Amino acid sequence: MSVTSLTLTSGRELPAVGLGTWKIAKDVATDVIQQATKVGYRHFDCACDYGNERQVGNGLNHAMEAGLVQRDDLWITSKLWNTYHRTEHVQPALQHTLDDLRLDYLDLYLVHFPIALRFVPFEERYPPEWFFEPESDHPCMHPAAVSLHETWQAMEELVRSGLVREIGVCNVGCAMLRDLLSYAEIAPAVLQVELHPYLTQDKLLRFCRESDVVVTAFSPLGAQSYFSIGMADPIESVLKQSVIQEIAARHERTPAQIVLRWGIQRQTAVVPKTTHPEHLRENLTLFDFELAQEEMNAVTSLNQNRRFNDPGEFCEAAFNTFFPIFD
């Protein structure tokens, strides 16, 4: 129950609970980050595409200046966006992130999606988001012919230069991860994927364990992050499942704490997003209780293979481009 971090092959420790910063509004992000450091967060999950790295960086900087935390205590993750997959764009993209976060290095840099899009100059639009020409009569995504192999080699150079401690990928399955492992000179340390009781990804999780790749679960509470953007219906909330509520009552915990504890006990890191002070505290309070095996099994049995964040669906619906990446 006392394990609060996951050990990477390098020996570095990834805190098991982090704060996800996707959809934290710019006008509150600085304050939320400061509050989070006060209550004990040391792991922050960021991305260029979230559009708030400058505000997150301000919050981290204020927290360090106030003596709440030191840089060596922090684990900061960010992600390479789709438009920056070519070799010559990888380091400049990282440098923009470092400048916004006001950092000299990242603890972890991930390839955000296995989706390469045409380059958009930094001075033209940053972050560039998904559309190539958003003001055109028929805006859409413009794919670029860039292999993950090319992108990965550029990611490896970031480690060698000291700008990044660890590298990894997001949103890939077993086949692509196996292929990456076959040619990587610096193996991916972390895979970040959508993972929750409705999408348990058992085979992928087992493959990662056997391949010494640590897994981080994004959207670990399932549908919660997707209500406001029309990608999930409130009736799909795993927190309303009777089995979750019964386990929560038994342990005198919230349903969210049960779902997050389930993720922790599966040996994954979790990065729930919240801006509420009480939820910030609750989401960290996961290490003084444990789910019994039958409770773990009951939560896992909720699996529906339900993916809320699927480019094969949202790219066509929102960006006029059919772009499946999952079978």
Provide key terms for this protein:
alpha/beta; two-stranded antiparallel ribbon; TIM Barrel; 11 helices; 327 residues; 37% helix; 8-stranded parallel sheet
Q: Could you describe the 3D structure shown?
A:
With 327 residues, the chain is an alpha/beta fold. It has a single domain (5-319), classed as TIM Barrel (Alpha-Beta Barrel), CATH 3.20.20. The protein has eleven helices and ten strands. The strands form two sheets. Strands 3-4-5-6-7-8-9-10 form an eight-stranded parallel sheet, covered by helices on one side. Strands 1-2 form a two-stranded antiparallel sheet. α1 (26-39) links the parallel β3 (19-20) and β4. α1 runs parallel beside α2 and α3 (87-101) packs across α4. The protein is globular. It starts with a strand and ends in an 8-residue tail after the last helix. 43% of the residues are buried. The model has no long low-confidence stretch (mean pLDDT 96).
Compute the number of structural domains: 1
Order of secondary-structure elements: EEEHEHEHEHEHEHEHHEHHH
CATH architecture field: Alpha-Beta Barrel
Question: What would the CATH topology be?
Answer: TIM Barrel
The average pLDDT value, as a whole number, equals 96
CATH class descriptor name: Alpha Beta
Q: Main beta sheet: strand number and arrangement? A: 8 strands, parallel
**What percentage of amino acids are in beta strands?**
5-15%
Q: So how many helices?
A: 11
Helical coverage, percent range: 25-40%
CA-CA gap between termini: 36 Å
Question: Which class do the helix and strand fractions yield?
Answer: alpha/beta
Q: Regions with pLDDT < 50 over 5+ consecutive residues?
A: none
Strand count: 10
What strand order characterises the main sheet?
3-4-5-6-7-8-9-10
Assign the CATH superfamily.
NADP-dependent oxidoreductase domain
| 3D shape | globular
Radius of gyration: 19 Å
